[in-house]
Amino acid sequence: MTKPALKICCVKSLEEALLALNAGADLIGLVSEMPNGPGVISLAEISEIIRALPAETKTVLLTSKTTANEIVAQQKQTLAWGVQVVGHISFGGVSKRRTLLPEVTIIRVVHVADAATVDIASSYFETVDYLLLDSGSPLAKPKSLGGTGHVHDWNISRQICELSPVPVLLAGGIHVGNLLDACAEVTPSGIDLCSGLRTNDSLDPDKVAAFISVLDQLDDNSQPGVRE
Fold this sequence. Notes:
two-stranded antiparallel ribbon, alpha/beta, eight-stranded parallel β-barrel, TIM Barrel, globular
């Protein structure tokens, strides 16, 4: 199995972004306004970070906006390589966003709750570039749209990975201690990390290094979850 891509999320500064990139992150997640959760910074700060990074950096703007026009406006302000939509948006809205942002990578978050999540994820297959499976409760009060640090049902996530024609990123409570098990059980295309790499709300270089060391055990000649 190919080593999963790594998305380091909740990046709050240029220094954190460079730390993540230098460590080997494939995607950098930058969180705009959310109802709750870690890593939130302003659109102006996100724009500054993106403009200071190498042009080829795959930066991802996380947005809780729920209309295509709002999401497009945020992307045009920040010039992010990709947009990760974490809140509810209608099927028509997803299609419109794709039309308005034809060159921008679209990542759709699906909050894994129960067996019905498989059908929800399937409804996005034709309109997005990636799915991201996370823990959360978007219909709760208050909403929880990610960054919970909680593991969800990986059996459901595996079903979605097996069905999906687009790459699937796995998030939700993944850390150095359960990474190999997550890859073995779910076989995702990539891993998304936030709370598992942070200490006192800062990206922790020691945690990043430890995680990368375990991730490097997965390559084309090994099976995920099998410790050498």
